[in-house]
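If your schedule permits, I should be very grateful for your opinion on a structural question. I have a record of one protein: its chain in single-letter code and its fold written as discrete structure tokens. Would you kindly read the sequence against the tokens and tell me how you understand this chain to fold? Thank you for your consideration; the sequence and its tokens are set out here.


***
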Amino acid sequence: MRQTVVTIAVLVLCVGAISAQGPGPEPDRGRPEVPSLDDQDQHHPLGEKMPEENYAFKPTPEVRSFGQLIAHVADAQYAFCSPVLGKSNPAPGIEKSKTTKADLVQA
């Protein structure tokens, strides 16, 4: 009997301690600002900063060149973003068709 009373008393104290804590801060449920996919000023300047002569640079022969990586990223962005916008891919195959710095920065 005594053990039951002690157990109930401990439970009441625990519930009291838990309920005495105030609610935590309200989480920010606001929607984060998402930049427009049509904003052409949001591109990464890496392609512009690399000199034209280094676009063919490969750290090892079995990997893509810098220019191929830029084209690959452009292909991937068009492939993922075009359906989100409800449009067809305006420039498929950039990695296979464009090789110059001017063409890749434009893409």
User: Anything to note?
Assistant: DSSP finds five helices and no strands in the chain.
